[in-house]
Description:
alpha/beta; globular; 4-stranded parallel β-sheet
Amino acid sequence: xxxxxxxxxxxxxxxxxxxxxxxxxxxxxxxxxxxxxxxxxxxxxxxxxxxxxxxxxxxxxxxxxxxxxxxxxxxxxxxxxxxxxxxxxxxxxxxxxxxxxxxxxxxxxxxxxxxxxxx
Length: 119
């Protein structure tokens, strides 16, 4: 893994994705697939899940940032991801504030330290 560049992948709303793209994180892989998905009201859960799985399977993805509200819809897919890379981080959006108690990754990390903290 040393020397190989890893990307941040995004599954977020348009404003957040635009901000990250303006910051220079936008990339296309060798198959011309972007490292982001703009989630809109008409975006289906299956489209979000397919994109999430594609990001997990890309060898150039290091971190996946996903809106916590959207992550709740993919809970089964998040629960099956057991690897540290790519790291999946749930973050807030303007419409939905972050709730630490609902963060599946944070709950799993707490469980590593003491059994009673396991969510």
